[in-house]
Amino acid sequence: MHTPREPKLIEELDRMQQEPLLPIEKKLITYSIVLGVTLLALLAWISWTFFEVPG
What we know:
The chain is mainly alpha-helical. It has helices at residues 9-15, 23-50.
């Protein structure tokens, strides 16, 4: 069963302290975004170079 007074999600989130991102986390986020944009550009280049678009 459940306790008579279960904390609500919003109340729990309000009580949580903000934790700053670690430097390694910032680097991982940056590398992931750069990798994603690079691969998207590569995919677009391959598409335009090797596949003809009708129209």
